[in-house]
Predict the structure.
Amino acid sequence: MILPIYGYGFSVLKKECEDIDKEFENLSDLIENMWETMYNASGVGLAAPQIGEDIRLFIVDTIQILEDEEKDKGIKKVYINAQIVEETGEPWAYEEGCLSIPFIRADVMRQPEITIKYVDEDFKPQVDKLSGINARVVQHEYDHINGVLFVDHLKPLKKKLLKRKLEAIKKGNIDPDYRMKYASPK
């Protein structure tokens, strides 16, 4: 089922999320709905807060954005109760966007390599060492489960310049091509 994506301004997007256990009700259905919702919105990642759930869960599929000869370097994974344990390398800028903040893109500085521990959808412990675009997408989604949005990484002047656009998203004065919920619709 395609779920509505919560837009900028919802408090759940600014909340540090809670760990879950394998008894979490309807988890496999939730994950399946998240995949469907993400693909419907042409996303490469989706975190539970973006669909109104304050739990430490996100999904990532970078395979779909890579060239054919590079697809084997991409990832398609479910991350539950994730913790980034290390970020290394010289920070690099890359233009990011977010399904909860449509029509806004901006360069965000992030370190190029991470080590992340988590449990998969079968609650088996995992550790990934990621770099490049895989690391960036995971860092972006990881931020979501910690109540951080990509615009929070921007310099104050850039954020000030985006204020009107962010308010339009909050009020629902936008027309994305996927279902959204707005924090304070007119």
Observations:
- DSSP finds three helices and nine strands in the chain.
- The mean pLDDT is 96.
- Residues 171 and 186 are 6 Å apart (CA to CA).
